[in-house]
Amino acid sequence: MRLVKIGLASVNVTVGAFARNVDGALELARQMAADDVTVGVFQESLVGGYPPEDLVQWQGFVDNQWPQLERFARETASLPCVFLIGVAVAHQGLRYNCAAIVAGGKVVGLVPKEKLPTYSIFYEGRTFARGVPGMHEQFRGIPLGDYLFRFDFGIISPEVCEDIWSPEGPIRRRTYSGGELVVNLSASPFRLGHVDTRREQLATRAADFQCTIAYSNALGSNDGLIFDGGGFINQNGKPVAEEPRFRQGFAAAVVDLDRTLRLRTENTTWRSDRETWLREGGKLVPTIDCTQVVTTRRDTLRYPVPAHRSFFLPGPDTRRSGREALCEDILDALSLGVGDYFEKTRAFKVLGIALSGGRDSLLTLLVAHRYARRVRPDNPGSLIRAFYMPSRYSSDATRDAAETIARELGVPFEVIPIEEAFERELEVTRKMLGGGQPTALTEQNIQARLRAQRMWNWSNSSGGLFLQTGNMSERAVGYTTVGGDLMGALAVIANVPKTVVMYLLDYLLEQTNYEGIRKVLAKPAGPELAHNQVGEEELMPFPILDACFYLFAGEKLVPAEMLHALEAMFPEIEAERLRGYVDKFIRLFLQSIYKWVQAPLSLHIGNLDLDRERALQLPVVTSSDWTRG
């Protein structure tokens, strides 16, 4: 047996906070060593933080990471462990996103990332250079390139994030060259359901290439990208361990690397593929001998046996229901996003919400409170301020709902009427129109803008983080006011569809039984900027609106194709009405792009959202002519 204990660590890092990021890594490195970990795996770009974006173009941003990596090496010199940690280096005018191998107080090697994602939210090809097969260079006297590393327990094959997502990535030639333990340092953002994709992908790679994979993911939120942390150990297709997500720390498990080698001796496709690869001229990746660098301590390790003491029977099923998993993941991700933005910017002292008594602001409040409950468990409400700003159109029911939930959460709640200011602005507008009357839409927008202005005034004076509360569905079709409810410092649920907002509130009502949630849900959704406003009456039923958004913006269907899909999805609605909904959606969506590109930074929870610099890059000035064929 060759028993190896692998530790997967997640550190909540901040872009540019090199010393603090490494401090977090050092704390976990010492904890892992105390737990007899042999190989400690940290995340991609740990020293510099991720995503660094164009900061990589600053020579100082890259160069100043190296002293911190050396500090990590010095301060772990006495630990009988091997560590892999993400760092950027500048070499011969190029920047590389690397996995650094640290042992015995030294950086013994640097392996650059090869597959640079330049899709969806990623722009790595803009700033980083790619590592290439056969790259064998020196950086400060340290091997930089396509290498394996032999230690007293076996051979490590380092790689970075995207490298493992391609079957033609470095894992192929490196396992053919003897790599046993593939260590992947990742910074993979949270996306709904993506944890299952990661798990399946890693199992596939470990089986296809007959290796043990240790995968550690980044944790924390930076610029609206939320990293859920966590990690996986998989041996030759068999799941071994998972690190919990959404928390800083580490998890560890023991594997027997002799098992990996034994499985390679069997008559597998991997074995025959390796023979073909060698016969066709495949070049073996060189292995750097590090056996004299560090002596690991493995005498205390026990053979990995099932906790339920059976190799044949399944263990207890601890999986969550699909509903709980979906809702808790979204809520954990959003609360992490709010908390990290609040803490890492170092600009704010308190969280502020314009609480309307409606669904969107309620969910935003509950997300903020979830974060506050974690950092101030004794008095979470003290971190939040809620303001209810009624006009003549505000109902007693929404005020009661807002007041009730604030009381249940212990959040300070103030009523600040805008009626007097509303009338004053109407009069000013009449004067500017030369005696003419503002339109009905202008009257609605004035109310929204007054509320936003007051929230900004409060924010400026109190150091408060003004949370924007609009959802994705209504933003997509411009059912929002520039300078009004579109405004804020951070858009919390801007990428949460309206149907998901309501689903989450139903779930939270089941979990908490808050009367405030019940009162909000008892009233039809509407902005209360005019008499008896109901959102679905002014737009369309929200399930249809969200379906239109998904089909057009996500699946890239044209109206005729959208109608075909909607007829299958909503057979109870006549085709002519559905056609009207499609035409209305296309018109509103394309003419509203100018609005949502002005929205504040938003939190990302899926592959589809309305952040122009991230997922859906559309021209502001465009015509809908092309949609008609």
From TrEMBL:
Entry EC number(s): 6.3.5.1
UniProt catalytic activity: deamido-NAD(+) + L-glutamine + ATP + H2O = L-glutamate + AMP + diphosphate + NAD(+) + H(+)
GO biological process: NAD+ biosynthetic process
Positions contributing to ATP binding: A354, L355, S356, G357, G358, R359, D360, S361, T469
Pathway: Cofactor biosynthesis; NAD(+) biosynthesis; NAD(+) from deamido-NAD(+) (L-Gln route): step 1/1
Chain positions recorded as L-glutamine binding sites: Y119, S188
Job description of the protein: Catalyzes the ATP-dependent amidation of deamido-NAD to form NAD. Uses L-glutamine as a nitrogen source.
HAMAP family: NadE_glutamine_dep
Family assignment from sequence similarity: In the C-terminal section; belongs to the NAD synthetase family. Belongs to the NAD synthetase family.
Protein name, as recorded: Glutamine-dependent NAD(+) synthetase
Provenance organism: Cystobacter ferrugineus
